[in-house]
Design brief:
Layout: H1 2-21, H2 29-40, H3 43-74, E1 75-76, H4 80-86, H5 95-106, H6 111-120, H7 135-159, H8 163-171, H9 176-205, H10 208-212, H11 218-228, H12 232-257, E2 273-274, H13 277-306, H14 315-349, H15 353-360, H16 368-386, H17 396-421, H18 425-432, H19 437-448, H20 450-466, H21 469-474, H22 482-491, H23 495-524
Parallel strand pairs: 1-2
Helix pairs in contact: 1-12, 1-14, 1-15, 1-16, 3-7, 3-9, 3-11, 3-13, 5-13, 7-9, 7-13, 8-9, 9-12, 11-12, 13-23, 14-17, 14-20, 16-17, 17-20, 20-23, 22-23
Amino acid sequence: MYLASLFISLACLLPLMLLFVAWAVPLAPASQESWHHLLATTLFENAANTLALSAGVALLSALIGVSAAWFITRCEFPGRRMLSWLLIMPLAMPSYLLAMSYGSLLEFAGPVQSALRAWFGWQAGDYWFPPVRSLGGAVVLLALSSVPYVYMLARLAFRSQPQEWFEVAQSLGKTRRQLFWQVALPAARPFVIIGVILAVMETIADIGTVHMLGVPALSTGIYRTWFLMGEPLLAARIAALLLLIAAALLWLEHISRRGARYDSLRIQPLPRRTLKPHKRWLIAIYCALPALFGFVVPLVWMIRLSWYHTETVTASSLLAQSMDSLMLMASAAALVVGVSLLMAYGERIRGRLRHINLAASLGYAMPGVVIAVGLLLIQGLVKDTLGYAMLMTGGMLGLMMAYLIRFLSPSYSALHSGYQRLARETDMVAESLGKSRWQIFFQVHLPSLRFPVVMAALIVAIDVLKELPATLILRPFDVKTLAVAVYEFASDDRPVEAAPYALVMVAIAALAVVILHRLQERSHGAA
């Protein structure tokens, strides 16, 4: 088991480790000149934008996610039960679909500004309108798509806090506001930090949103350097910088988990406050806004675009690309969850594997294009040294490896949390009854981990459905997913043709999100 976990971790790390090797390889004179040009022009701007995006998304997603989780958990207001699951629905809406939808909705020639000019008789230059294609617009849209990460974990933390804590604090004269800031929030902080880190990792890995909104970032800089400038070594150097940021985030996540006592949580329904009528409606509106702008508005806009007739989109093409997407989702979920189970079980047996497993999880914060670049570097290295053409493009091998590296972290985290709740005394009892390690795994662990396993599979399936760059580069030539179809039409400025594929993709993801939410409810108790 130790050797298997070590082999899996090294296989996932190898494409990422090659990125640092690029710093040791001497550059040709032309590449050296290109590198100095990047340093003098765009590299520091890209890095600054990436840090600004990360900080903005962390702050905004934490503010919205924590406050919404608190209101849903502790307050009674109209529509609370419906909003409790609507707030996770932005998980089904990829951020690049938000960028495509709001980019066409809010641009100068879009329906919103056109309606304003028609109503008020304005002309160009007569009014100010917030630019969606800007750094601020990217922060808002990326935060809207990331709020569910913070919301779900914060809600779990708040629901897990014993009522006795609040009773003791109230007996000491604490107000309701002090209860939140001095009792509830500090206890939930490890969960909130993990959610924020997941949101930031999604942000630094994003390439579609920032590209569509015209915001230069490290991820887009990597893509341009490799595919437009033809400088793979320089792209690998930039990717190594992004990998260092990802490593720092995973280290923070590991530190945060030390404060999360999963085995001592008391899951019980907490009494909810009955508010005054005006406060009830204000809170209901506040909690509805993230779901409205992060899911409902872009969904309605895509439905509106789908009403236009186009001969390009047919039922057969929609069905074929839906089946391709489902096939990749199922295959990747089975692979990633199976590997994550082996790694989590290996850590259960040998705790020193924790740091190796954490290192193997770095790929989650890397753009799909960077992982594809790493795999292509391996392909070139194997061909140059061994003369063997390892097929990483145009086949399932490279694509499944990319999915494994990219989505190992959320799957492993879900299973690791499940193992944290499984007392080690159960292993000792099973061993005393003469059970082998594999019998303990199949007869004790797997039945106890059924909820984490299914949830990990759903998380991976949703992520694979939304993944674009790696799929675009490494997919088999006869496979075309819904995300690829959306990208091809959207990049040609054909949103009408892209909308039906986007709708089917959102429908599949929404169904998976609803099932995921129901499993969480069953696992942690009713709201």
